[in-house]
Design brief:
This protein is α+β, with helices and mostly antiparallel strands and about 290 residues long. The chain has helices at about 120-135, 145-190, 195-200, 205-215, 220-235, 250-255, 260-270, 275-294, and strands spanning about 1-5, 15-25, 35, 40-55, 60-65, 65-70, 75-80, 85-95, 115, 240, 245. The protein has 8 helices and 11 strands. The chain starts with a strand and ends with a helix.
C-alpha cells in the first residue's frame, strides 16, 4: 500500500479536509486490514480491481470492482479477502465532515448500507480519486491545496450523484419499515409489546426504530401503542350492549392490553384529561336519552 498525507492547516475548521490518500494495486498481491475504526475520519474506498469481503459494523459485504465503500467515523471495519484473492483500491480519508441531518464525520446514516454500486459513475470517481492521490504523490507546488480542492469536488459529486439516490431509497425503506411496525401495533395492541420486542421482530435496533417511527408519525412506538389502546378503550367505554355499556372499566383495561388498572387510569387521565369513569359518565349524561330510545 502506498499512502500520502495531506496538510489541513489552511482549511477552515468548519470545512471538510483531506487527511490522506492511499492506493493498493492488485498486482501487489494479497492485502488485508483487520478490525479497526477511525475516530474523526470518514474513509471513502473505491474498489478498482478484484473482489473480496468486507466486515463492516457487524455485517459482511461482498465487494467487487466498481463498488464504493464508505466508512463513517467510529464504525468498526475489517477488510479480508475471499480465498486470499488480491484486490485493488483507492482510498481517501477525510476529516471535519459536517452533513446536515447526520452526526459529525458521517457521510451516510449509520443504518444505511455502506456499499454503493457505481455503474456509470465509476469512471468519474476513479479519475477524481486517482488525481487526488497522484497530486499528493508528486513534488509539485501547492499540492496539498490542490488535493484539497479536488476533494471538495469529489464530495460534491458523491453527495449529488450517488448518495442522494441512496438517501432517497433509504428514506423510502424507513417509511416502509415504520408503516409495517405501525400496522403490527394496530393489530396486536392487546399484547404485551415492548420496544425491544418490536425491534427484534423487525430486525433493527430499538434506538433506530424509536427514532424513525417518531420522525414519521410524531410518536414513539410505545407512545403510539398506548394511544392505540386508549382509543379502543374510549370506544368500549361508550359502546352500548343490551341497553347498557360494554364491560366494567377494570375489564376494559385488561381487554385493551394494560397490565394493571392503575396504569390504565393514569394513562387515560394523562392523555384524555379525565379518568375513564369521568369520560364514561359524561358520555352517559349527554347520550342517555338516545341510549334509552335505542
Amino acid at each position: 500500500m502506498k499512502q500520502c498525507f495531506c496538510q489541513c492547516d489552511e482549511i477552515a475548521k468548519n470545512q471538510s479536509c483531506l487527511a490522506y490518500a492511499s492506493i493498493v494495486e492488485k498486482k501487489e498481491g494479497h492485502f488485508s486490514r483487520f478490525m479497526h475504526m477511525h475516530h474523526d475520519i470518514v474513509e471513502i474506498i473505491l474498489i478498482t480491481d478484484g473482489s473480496g469481503e468486507y466486515f463492516i459494523d457487524n455485517t459482511s459485504y461482498v465487494i467487487n470492482k466498481g463498488d464504493l465503500v464508505i466508512y463513517n467515523s467510529l464504525v468498526v471495519h475489517d477488510e479480508f479477502l475471499v480465498q486470499q484473492n488480491a484486490i485493488g483500491t483507492l482510498c481517501c480519508g477525510i476529516k471535519n465532515i459536517a452533513k446536515p441531518g447526520l452526526r459529525g464525520n458521517a457521510l451516510i446514516t449509520d443504518s444505511a448500507s455502506p456499499v454503493f454500486h457505481l455503474n456509470q459513475n465509476y469512471d468519474i470517481i476513479y479519475t477524481l480519486m486517482k488525481s487526488i492521490f497522484s497530486m499528493l504523490a508528486q513534488a509539485v507546488n501547492h499540492k496539498d491545496r490542490l488535493a484539497q480542492q479536488l476533494t471538495q469536488v469529489l464530495l460534491e459529486y458523491l453527495n449529488h450523484n450517488i448518495l442522494a439516490a441512496g438517501e432517497e431509497s433509504h428514506a423510502k425503506n424507513n417509511l416502509l419499515l415504520t408503516a409495517r411496525v405501525k400496522t403490527y401495533i394496530d393489530h396486536h395492541f392487546t399484547e404485551q409489546l415492548q420496544l425491544n420486542t418490536l425491534a427484534e421482530l423487525f430486525g433493527v435496533s430499538p434506538f433506530y426504530l424509536a427514532h424513525e417511527f417518531k420522525k414519521n408519525y410524531g410518536y414513539s412506538p410505545v407512545a403510539y401503542l398506548i394511544k392505540r389502546r386508549l382509543g379502543e378503550a374510549q370506544t368500549l367505554l361508550t359502546t352500548a350492549t343490551n341497553g347498557g355499556l360494554f364491560e366494567k372499566i377494570t375489564d376494559i383495561a385488561y381487554l385493551v392490553g394494560f397490565n394493571s388498572l392503575s396504569h390504565f387510569q393514569t394513562s387515560f387521565k394523562t392523555n384524555v384529561g379525565k379518568t375513564p369513569g369521568q369520560y364514561r359518565n359524561e358520555y352517559l349524561k349527554e347520550n342517555s336519552a338516545k341510549m334509552l330510545m335505542s
